């Protein structure tokens, strides 16, 4: 399978715990994006990388959130000291940088539930 | 501010009928792209169709077509000959080419196809 993969698919954690999600993009894609989707809403942009460089961070990404893409391949999204408001689906997407009209291919998402 | 508006939270359509999902967008940028994604109950985001702001012809992909009216800033999705498998959430989205590379999503329309 050459699509975008995410791990885990589901995560249940207690408030205050740290969680880490992983995203493996399509291998030749140099751009990788993280989005958050809450129930009944469209995905909201969190951050994106071009290769290993983090180029944009949304104001939604508080200090408790950090994302990395150390070798320009897979990426991790860590949430520290989780809060109930962090419960959401976390979507990863990848694309080529050029041409700019290339669609973003989405992974299946990680559904986080904070108790 | 950049914004996508989908005014139809839910729609019910008889199988085999055509359906139009509304989308209006707000941007002062001249260079942008408009997308439609489908999200079934399984959660993955499936790319359907793309329209560039400089494209003179409406985009078509199989049973999907995008009715692009630039002056009205609308990008409605038309699904011809609807099928039961079309039941899903549908998101309209916009990508600004000359700014950060994020995609801005609308809140979505839930489409129900009736047998």
Question: Any key phrases for this structure?
Answer:
heterodimer; A: 115 residues; mainly beta; seven-stranded mixed beta sheet; 11 strands; 0% helix; B: 115 residues; four-stranded antiparallel beta sheet; globular
Provide the fold topology.
The complex is a heterodimer of chains A (115) and B (115).
Chain A: E1 5-7, E2 10-13, E3 19-24, E4 31-37, E5 44-50, E6 53-57, E7 65-68, E8 75-79, E9 88-95, E10 105-106, E11 110-114
Parallel strand pairs in A: 2-11
Antiparallel strand pairs in A: 1-3, 3-8, 4-5, 4-9, 5-6, 7-8, 9-10, 9-11
Chain B: E1 3-5, E2 10-14, E3 19-21, E4 24-26, E5 32-39, E6 46-52, E7 60-61, E8 64-69, E9 74-79, E10 88-96, E11 103-105, E12 109-114
Structure characterization notes:
- By secondary structure, chain A is mostly beta strands.
- Chain A has strands spanning 5-7, 10-13, 19-24, 31-37, 44-50, 53-57, 65-68, 75-79, 88-95, 105-106, 110-114.
- In chain A, the strands form two sheets. In chain A, strands 2, 4, 5, 6, 9, 10 and 11 form a seven-stranded mixed beta sheet that branches.
- The radius of gyration of chain A is 13 Å and the shape is globular.
- Chain B has 115 residues and is mainly beta.
- Chain B has no helices and twelve strands.
- Chain B has strands at residues 3-5, 10-14, 19-21, 24-26, 32-39, 46-52, 60-61, 64-69, 74-79, 88-96, 103-105, 109-114.
Amino-to-carboxy terminus distance of chain A: 33 Å
Shape, principal axes of CA atoms of chain A: globular
Number of strands of chain B: 12
Low-confidence stretches of chain B: none
User: For the terminal residues of chain B, how far apart are their CA atoms?
Assistant: 41 Å
- The number of helical runs of chain B is 0
Q: Uncertain runs of chain A with pLDDT below 50, 5 residues or more? A: none
β-strand percent of chain A reads over 45%
Quaternary form: heterodimer
Counting DSSP E segments of at least 2 residues, the number of strands of chain A comes to 11
- Tell me the helix content of chain A: under 10%
In N-to-C order, the SSE pattern of chain B is EEEEEEEEEEEE
Q: Count interface residues per chain for the largest interface.
A: A-B, 25 and 25 residues
């Amino acid at each position: 399978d050459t699509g975008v993969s995410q791990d885990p698919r589901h995560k249940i954690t207690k408030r205050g715990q740290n969680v880490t999600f992983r995203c493996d993009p399509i291998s030749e894609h140099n751009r990788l994006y993280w989005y958050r989707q809450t129930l009944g809403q469209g995905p909201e942009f969190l951050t994106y990388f071009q290769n290993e460089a983090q180029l944009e961070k949304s104001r939604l990404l508080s200090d408790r959130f950090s994302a990395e893409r150390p070798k320009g391949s897979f990426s991790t999204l860590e949430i520290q000291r989780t809060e109930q408001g962090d419960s959401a689906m976390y979507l990863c997407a990848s694309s080529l940088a050029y041409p700019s009209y290339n669609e973003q291919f989405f992974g299946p998402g990680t559904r986080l539930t904070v108790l | 501010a950049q914004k996508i508006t989908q005014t139809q939270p839910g729609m019910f359509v008889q199988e085999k009928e055509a359906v139009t999902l509304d989308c209006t967008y707000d941007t002062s940028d001249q260079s942008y792209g408009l997308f439609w994604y489908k999200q079934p109950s399984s959660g993955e985001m499936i790319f359907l169709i793309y329209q560039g702001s400089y494209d003179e012809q409406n985009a078509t992909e199989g049973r999907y077509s995008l009715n692009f009216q630039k002056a009205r800033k609308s990008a409605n999705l038309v699904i011809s000959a609807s099928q039961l498998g079309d039941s899903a959430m549908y998101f309209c989205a916009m990508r600004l080419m000359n700014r950060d590379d994020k995609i801005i999503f609308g809140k979505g329309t839930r489409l129900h196809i009736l047998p």
